[in-house]
Predict the 3D structure of the following.
Amino acid sequence: MTTQSFISSSQKRLLRTLNGESLYPPPLWLMRQAGRFLPEFRAIRAEADFMTRCLTPDLATELTLQPIRRFGMDGAILFSDILILPWAMGQSLDFVAGKGPVLEAIRTQRNLEALTPEKIPEKTAPIIETISRLRHILDGPNDLGKATAGSTTLLGFAGSPFTVACYMVEGGGSKEFAKTRCMAFSEPMLFDRLIALLTQTTAEYLCAQVQAGAEAVVLFDTWAGLLPPSQFRRYSIEPTHQIVADLKARYPFVRVIGFPRLCGVMVADYAYQTGVDVVALDTGFDITKVRSLLPKGIGIQGNLDPIALLAGGEALKTEILAICAAARGMPHIFNLGHGILPETPVEHVEYLVHTLRNNL
Ligand code: 1CP
């Protein structure tokens, strides 16, 4: 399937925003929406481990559609994980309950050479199959409850090279990723090679997602804010720029959302230099101030505090209204500033959707 489907993109409010229109009220999806806060998600989680859920098209399709059925979100994000790419290159990966991801750490040139990037297409084939099924379901006649057929934009994604490298080098999650950042300073040649490998494989993996039907892709650079400016340019901006250029050379219509979390004022360089269509803002940004730092025509996504959504009540409404007012006149996708928290009551998400659609 190509990026122009049989459904006119004008029905898709998220895609229109990605193409530069300023819509009010803004379209909406939530980071980590296919997840732990939904009872129907927890039911499937009880039956199948995480990798099985990612690699079984029936399960991954169902998990992607759950928040669409329940809330009619404007975007459906593929159920998968940023760590699928290192796994597909042969790095061992386990998701340990209560601890998170555990990988066999990459620390040496020899470790790096043992990876098998040529196996990525074969190992990610079930994920690519899921994307193609999702696009047909979303655009075809469907029974998705609150979402009308052809109104939902399908989002693929990957981690940005630096963020994925953090997990690969550290061997799992961390607050500081000190081993990874030490490697960048003390063994820059080795770290550059890892980033180059990830840049190339991420571009190819995202191309495969777009070829299968993803209309836009998200690049999650969750840990970009750990980098000092010189390294932010080298390990976040430059690889992102290359990935976006590769993708758009092959698929000129594809749209890209970049999320350089906690990058502060470096967001201006990121927005000017990477070529992303939309920059996703974390919770700390004051939209009224940041808009003057960004290039004309670029869109923004965000940036409700996930804690405000957890808390609910009047404060939630005040935050929603303030964000929408501040972003008015720009292409704006309403979202959180980071992933939804597992304890978030479903009714608070219902309230958010209702407020955005009926009560601005
Ligand atoms: O068993 C389980 O349910 C595992 C929990 C889980 C889930 C539901 C993990 C492990 N990943 C996911 C899904 C996921 N991860 C999606 C799918 C779409 C959705 O849920 O809506 C996406 C887009 C991600 C992206 C992701 N994974 C990021 C980037 C975005 C962000 O939140 O910052 C990162 C950093 C990860 C790594 C990861 N995977 C899983 C966990 C628990 C973590 C975080 C580890 C850490 O603490 O650093």
About this structure: The domain at 3-358 is CATH 3.20.20.210 (TIM Barrel). The chain has 17 helices and nine strands. The first strand starts at residue 75 and ends at 77.
